[in-house]
Design brief:
5-stranded mixed β-sheet; 10 helices; Chitinase A, domain 3; alpha/beta; 3 domains; disordered C terminus; 35% helix
């Protein structure tokens, strides 16, 4: 199944929510009488009410994790015609206002109410591979009758900034600030340890990618070239896991590698608020919405800031925008990593 980046993000966030729910259940169960039937945890409250929510969350967590393991992450999106991942605007006959949608293969992890259309629906099939100014029609069943709906593809969104993408989709050179490019040209302040510095969330992403690549090599009918490409990538992912160092999150309230921070950006296009993690550089499937590289102009300018500090950032010598950082969290994953070297040893044994 093909998963668009927004879908991957929604599923990842839902997995985190479910894991937090299950941690809360541990305390809930410890204070109550628990009856164990096979693999089921059953709780009786006030002498009779059976609680199934735990099992529902466990099953949903397993389903979402399997989706990410078996799914194909969409890396490039067609903006000439409507295919999976394309954003577009349509106008139904008899209507003045435009409606905006994104085509997906399925609605797993996302909702149609958020503007997603499944390719498995008659609506999605009618739009598939249509171009700008093309007409479309499809039938819907209303009671015992069928009605034909007509409309037009007004435009397809081509601006890459309107799409959620993976950081590594862009070449490394295009992601770096001018200062970082100069450093590397002069071989200044960029040693092997820094090059291999990753955060705990990146470890999770690499492990997930490794599982997905192994699953793909076993289950998919790949061409010889695609098989070699996936094997090379799998070897590289495992090498990164083996050779990398886990970043020490700052002990104070400043922004550093591994910090989770909210950013309010003021640009010509308007005000944007993002919750991101600062990383050295992308190594796996880091999304542009969730991570910022310190080698980028934005990352370089938020590094070392404290709550409510302001900043400006540039590209090619021109001001892109300004912003403010707030709600810095350096405690996330604290229970998982008290000594990075100890954690690193356990990581290599896996």
């Amino acid at each position: 199944m093909i998963l668009i980046p927004e879908q991957v993000r929604a599923i990842r966030n839902r997995i985190l929510e479910l894991k937090m729910n299950l941690l809360m259940y541990d305390g809930y169960y410890s204070d109550r009488e628990v009856t164990d039937f096979g693999n089921s945890k059953n709780i009786f409250v006030d002498g009779g009410l059976l609680d199934y929510q735990y099992e529902m969350d466990v099953r949903q967590l397993e389903e979402y994790e399997q989706l990410l393991k078996e799914g194909i992450f969409l890396k490039s999106i067609d903006t000439e015609k409507i295919t999976v991942g394309t954003k577009f605007a349509i106008r139904f006959d008899g209507k003045d206002e435009l409606e905006h949608y994104t085509l997906v293969e399925s609605l797993d992890g996302i909702n149609s109410s958020d503007g997603f259309i499944s390719l498995q629906s008659s609506f999605g099939q009618a739009l598939y591979e249509k171009k700008e100014k093309d007409d479309f029609l499809y039938e819907v069943k209303i009671g015992n009758t069928r009605e034909t709906i007509f409309g037009e593809i007004v435009y397809i969104i081509k601006n890459c900034n309107s799409y959620v993408t993976y950081i590594r989709n862009r070449k490394l050179y295009n992601r770096m600030s001018i200062q970082e490019i100069r450093k590397r040209k002069n071989n200044i302040a960029y040693n092997k340890e820094k090059r291999n510095l990753i955060t705990l969330s990146q470890v999770d992403l690499l492990r997930d990618e490794s599982e997905r690549l192994e699953c793909g090599l076993k289950r998919q009918k790949l061409s010889y070239g695609d098989c070699r490409t996936q094997k090379r990538r799998l070897n590289l992912v495992n090498k990164i896991l083996s050779d990398s160092f886990i970043a020490n999150v700052p002990s104070d309230d400043t922004v550093g590698i591994g910090s989770h921070v909210s950013i309010m950006l003021f640009e010509d296009s308007g005000i944007e608020t993002r919750r991101v993690e600062l990383i050295e550089h992308a190594v796996s499937d880091e999304l542009t919405t969730d991570y910022v590289e310190i080698i980028s102009s934005l990352g370089m300018n938020i590094f070392g800031l404290k709550d409510n500090d302001s900043f400006s950032y540039y590209k090619s010598g021109f001001l892109i925008g300004s912003g403010m950082v707030y709600d810095i969290d350096n405690s996330k994953n604290a229970s998982r990593i008290t000594d990075p070297l100890v954690y690193q040893k356990s990581l290599k044994k896996r």
